[in-house]
Amino acid sequence: MDMLTPDLVAGMVATGATTRVDVEAVQRFKVGDEILVRNINPRGHTRLPKYLRGKRGVVERDHGVFIFPDTNAHRQGEKPQHVYSVRFSSVELWGREGSPKDSCIVDVFDDYMDRA
Amino acid sequence: MNGIHDIGGMHGVGPLEVEKDEPLFHAEWEKRVFGIFFGLAPHGYFNLDEFRHAIERMGAAEYLGSSYYEHWLHAYETLLMENGAITAEEYAARCTEVAEGMD
Asked: What residue segments make up the domains of chain B, in order of their start?
Protein backbone atom coordinates (compact mmCIF):
# COMPACT_ATOMS: atom_id res chain seq x y z
CA MET A 1 0.00 0.00 0.00
CA ASP A 2 1.13 3.52 -0.72
CA MET A 3 1.27 6.23 1.92
CA LEU A 4 -2.28 6.97 3.01
CA THR A 5 -3.52 10.55 2.79
CA PRO A 6 -6.82 11.80 4.25
CA ASP A 7 -8.53 12.03 0.84
CA LEU A 8 -7.97 8.28 0.28
CA VAL A 9 -9.47 7.06 3.55
CA ALA A 10 -13.18 7.20 2.64
CA GLY A 11 -12.65 5.06 -0.47
CA MET A 12 -10.55 2.54 1.38
CA VAL A 13 -13.12 2.18 4.16
CA ALA A 14 -15.96 1.83 1.65
CA THR A 15 -14.40 -0.78 -0.62
CA GLY A 16 -11.63 -2.41 1.41
CA ALA A 17 -7.96 -2.47 0.57
CA THR A 18 -7.55 -4.79 -2.39
CA THR A 19 -4.38 -6.77 -2.96
CA ARG A 20 -5.01 -6.98 -6.73
CA VAL A 21 -1.88 -6.01 -8.67
CA ASP A 22 -1.43 -4.91 -12.25
CA VAL A 23 1.34 -7.32 -13.28
CA GLU A 24 1.53 -10.37 -15.51
CA ALA A 25 1.58 -13.84 -13.95
CA VAL A 26 1.44 -17.33 -15.45
CA GLN A 27 -2.15 -18.51 -15.77
CA ARG A 28 -1.77 -22.22 -14.98
CA PHE A 29 -5.50 -22.94 -15.07
CA LYS A 30 -8.48 -21.96 -17.17
CA VAL A 31 -12.23 -22.11 -16.65
CA GLY A 32 -13.42 -25.72 -16.74
CA ASP A 33 -10.14 -27.25 -15.59
CA GLU A 34 -10.37 -30.02 -13.00
CA ILE A 35 -7.98 -29.33 -10.15
CA LEU A 36 -6.66 -31.05 -7.03
CA VAL A 37 -5.95 -28.87 -4.00
CA ARG A 38 -2.53 -29.46 -2.48
CA ASN A 39 -2.40 -30.93 1.02
CA ILE A 40 -0.21 -28.27 2.59
CA ASN A 41 0.01 -27.54 6.30
CA PRO A 42 2.34 -24.55 6.64
CA ARG A 43 3.21 -23.24 10.09
CA GLY A 44 3.00 -19.72 8.67
CA HIS A 45 0.09 -17.83 7.16
CA THR A 46 -2.14 -19.38 4.53
CA ARG A 47 -5.54 -18.54 3.07
CA LEU A 48 -6.23 -22.17 2.21
CA PRO A 49 -8.88 -23.60 4.56
CA LYS A 50 -8.25 -27.06 6.00
CA TYR A 51 -11.47 -28.49 4.61
CA LEU A 52 -10.29 -28.00 1.00
CA ARG A 53 -6.95 -29.76 1.27
CA GLY A 54 -6.68 -32.85 -0.93
CA LYS A 55 -10.07 -32.14 -2.56
CA ARG A 56 -10.98 -32.02 -6.24
CA GLY A 57 -12.84 -29.12 -7.83
CA VAL A 58 -13.54 -27.34 -11.12
CA VAL A 59 -12.32 -23.84 -12.01
CA GLU A 60 -15.31 -21.54 -12.54
CA ARG A 61 -13.68 -18.14 -12.94
CA ASP A 62 -10.30 -16.41 -13.09
CA HIS A 63 -10.26 -13.27 -10.94
CA GLY A 64 -6.89 -11.96 -12.15
CA VAL A 65 -3.62 -11.44 -10.30
CA PHE A 66 -3.22 -10.80 -6.57
CA ILE A 67 -0.45 -10.65 -3.98
CA PHE A 68 0.17 -14.10 -2.44
CA PRO A 69 -0.65 -13.93 1.28
CA ASP A 70 1.46 -16.92 2.31
CA THR A 71 4.71 -15.16 1.40
CA ASN A 72 3.62 -11.55 1.90
CA ALA A 73 2.66 -12.24 5.53
CA HIS A 74 6.30 -13.10 6.23
CA ARG A 75 7.88 -10.38 4.07
CA GLN A 76 9.11 -13.05 1.66
CA GLY A 77 7.86 -11.23 -1.42
CA GLU A 78 4.55 -10.55 -3.10
CA LYS A 79 4.73 -13.53 -5.51
CA PRO A 80 1.80 -12.21 -7.62
CA GLN A 81 -0.41 -14.96 -9.03
CA HIS A 82 -3.88 -15.72 -10.35
CA VAL A 83 -6.79 -16.39 -8.01
CA TYR A 84 -9.62 -18.60 -9.24
CA SER A 85 -13.13 -19.38 -8.09
CA VAL A 86 -13.28 -23.15 -7.76
CA ARG A 87 -16.44 -25.19 -7.32
CA PHE A 88 -16.32 -28.17 -4.95
CA SER A 89 -19.25 -30.56 -4.61
CA SER A 90 -20.63 -31.00 -1.11
CA VAL A 91 -20.06 -34.77 -1.37
CA GLU A 92 -16.39 -34.20 -2.33
CA LEU A 93 -15.92 -32.01 0.77
CA TRP A 94 -18.02 -33.90 3.31
CA GLY A 95 -18.41 -37.44 2.00
CA ARG A 96 -21.67 -39.19 2.86
CA GLU A 97 -22.67 -36.28 5.11
CA GLY A 98 -22.60 -33.98 2.06
CA SER A 99 -25.70 -33.13 0.03
CA PRO A 100 -25.73 -34.31 -3.61
CA LYS A 101 -27.57 -31.07 -4.47
CA ASP A 102 -25.05 -28.64 -2.96
CA SER A 103 -21.66 -27.26 -3.88
CA CYS A 104 -19.32 -24.64 -2.47
CA ILE A 105 -17.38 -22.05 -4.47
CA VAL A 106 -14.11 -20.87 -2.92
CA ASP A 107 -11.47 -18.43 -4.15
CA VAL A 108 -8.20 -20.36 -4.39
CA PHE A 109 -4.69 -19.08 -5.14
CA ASP A 110 -2.75 -20.64 -8.02
CA ASP A 111 -0.07 -21.97 -5.65
CA TYR A 112 -2.62 -24.08 -3.78
CA MET A 113 -3.62 -26.23 -6.76
CA ASP A 114 -2.42 -28.83 -9.25
CA ARG A 115 -4.18 -30.24 -12.29
CA ALA A 116 -6.32 -33.23 -11.28
CA MET B 1 -1.16 -22.35 10.14
CA ASN B 2 -3.70 -24.89 11.36
CA GLY B 3 -5.12 -22.58 14.01
CA ILE B 4 -8.41 -21.98 15.78
CA HIS B 5 -9.37 -19.34 13.20
CA ASP B 6 -9.96 -22.02 10.56
CA ILE B 7 -13.17 -23.57 11.87
CA GLY B 8 -14.85 -24.47 8.56
CA GLY B 9 -16.47 -27.89 8.97
CA MET B 10 -16.00 -27.99 12.75
CA HIS B 11 -18.85 -29.33 14.89
CA GLY B 12 -20.02 -27.98 18.25
CA VAL B 13 -19.53 -24.24 17.72
CA GLY B 14 -23.24 -23.44 17.83
CA PRO B 15 -25.54 -21.71 15.36
CA LEU B 16 -24.56 -18.66 13.34
CA GLU B 17 -26.62 -15.91 14.92
CA VAL B 18 -27.40 -13.02 12.60
CA GLU B 19 -27.95 -9.79 14.50
CA LYS B 20 -31.00 -7.80 13.37
CA ASP B 21 -30.15 -4.21 12.35
CA GLU B 22 -26.53 -4.81 13.26
CA PRO B 23 -24.67 -1.52 13.89
CA LEU B 24 -21.23 -0.92 12.35
CA PHE B 25 -19.76 -0.72 15.84
CA HIS B 26 -21.00 -2.00 19.20
CA ALA B 27 -18.92 0.34 21.37
CA GLU B 28 -17.04 3.63 21.02
CA TRP B 29 -13.65 1.96 21.49
CA GLU B 30 -14.28 -0.23 18.47
CA LYS B 31 -14.29 2.88 16.26
CA ARG B 32 -10.86 3.82 17.58
CA VAL B 33 -9.47 0.35 17.01
CA PHE B 34 -10.82 0.33 13.44
CA GLY B 35 -9.35 3.74 12.71
CA ILE B 36 -5.91 2.86 14.08
CA PHE B 37 -5.51 0.37 11.23
CA PHE B 38 -5.36 3.25 8.74
CA GLY B 39 -2.68 4.98 10.75
CA LEU B 40 -0.47 1.88 10.70
CA ALA B 41 -0.79 -0.50 7.73
CA PRO B 42 -0.57 2.06 4.89
CA HIS B 43 2.45 3.62 6.59
CA GLY B 44 4.53 0.47 6.57
CA TYR B 45 4.18 -0.78 10.14
CA PHE B 46 2.73 -4.04 8.80
CA ASN B 47 0.90 -5.36 5.74
CA LEU B 48 -2.59 -6.83 5.57
CA ASP B 49 -1.38 -10.42 5.58
CA GLU B 50 0.94 -9.89 8.55
CA PHE B 51 -2.05 -8.38 10.33
CA ARG B 52 -4.26 -11.39 9.63
CA HIS B 53 -1.50 -13.78 10.67
CA ALA B 54 -0.97 -11.91 13.95
CA ILE B 55 -4.63 -12.58 14.76
CA GLU B 56 -4.23 -16.25 13.85
CA ARG B 57 -1.25 -16.51 16.20
CA MET B 58 -3.44 -15.71 19.22
CA GLY B 59 -3.80 -18.58 21.70
CA ALA B 60 -6.88 -20.67 20.91
CA ALA B 61 -8.65 -20.02 24.22
CA GLU B 62 -7.99 -16.27 24.05
CA TYR B 63 -9.09 -16.14 20.42
CA LEU B 64 -12.44 -17.77 21.14
CA GLY B 65 -12.98 -15.70 24.27
CA SER B 66 -12.48 -12.28 22.67
CA SER B 67 -14.40 -10.18 20.18
CA TYR B 68 -13.65 -9.19 16.58
CA TYR B 69 -12.10 -5.81 17.36
CA GLU B 70 -10.25 -7.23 20.35
CA HIS B 71 -8.53 -9.43 17.79
CA TRP B 72 -7.55 -6.32 15.84
CA LEU B 73 -6.13 -4.66 18.94
CA HIS B 74 -4.22 -7.83 19.81
CA ALA B 75 -2.65 -7.80 16.33
CA TYR B 76 -1.52 -4.16 16.69
CA GLU B 77 0.07 -4.94 20.06
CA THR B 78 1.85 -8.03 18.75
CA LEU B 79 3.17 -6.45 15.55
CA LEU B 80 4.21 -3.07 16.96
CA MET B 81 6.18 -4.77 19.72
CA GLU B 82 7.73 -7.32 17.36
CA ASN B 83 8.86 -4.70 14.86
CA GLY B 84 10.18 -2.42 17.59
CA ALA B 85 7.82 0.52 17.05
CA ILE B 86 6.95 0.37 20.76
CA THR B 87 8.26 -1.58 23.71
CA ALA B 88 6.17 -3.63 26.11
CA GLU B 89 7.20 -1.24 28.90
CA GLU B 90 6.08 1.85 26.96
CA TYR B 91 2.78 0.22 26.13
CA ALA B 92 2.11 -0.88 29.70
CA ALA B 93 2.97 2.60 30.97
CA ARG B 94 0.62 4.24 28.48
CA CYS B 95 -2.19 1.80 29.37
CA THR B 96 -1.74 2.78 33.02
CA GLU B 97 -1.90 6.48 32.14
CA VAL B 98 -5.11 6.03 30.19
CA ALA B 99 -6.65 3.87 32.91
CA GLU B 100 -5.86 6.58 35.45
CA GLY B 101 -7.58 9.19 33.31
CA MET B 102 -4.48 11.14 32.26
CA ASP B 103 -5.34 10.53 28.55
From this structure: 44-99
Helices (H), ranges, chain B: 28-40, 48-56, 60-64, 68-82, 88-99
Please give the average pLDDT of every successive group of 10 residues along chain A, which has 116 residues: 76 82 96 98 98 98 98 97 98 97 98 97
What are the strands of the beta sheet with A81-89, ordered from one edge? A103-109, A81-89, A56-66, A34-37, A113-115
Which pLDDT tens digit goes with each residue over B30-53?
999 999 999 998 889 999 999 999
Interface of B with A (CB under 8 A): 1-2, 6, 8-9, 38, 41-43, 47-50, 52-53, 56
Are B48 and A2 a contacting pair at CB < 8 A? no
Report the CATH number of the B44-99 domain: 1.10.472.20
Interface confidence (ipTM) of the complex: 0.89
In a domain, A73, yes or no: yes
**Any chain B CB within 8 A of the CB of A105?**
no
A5 domain residue, yes or no: no
**Number of domains, chain A:** 1
Alpha-carbon gap: A55 to the closest alpha carbon of chain B (Å): 14
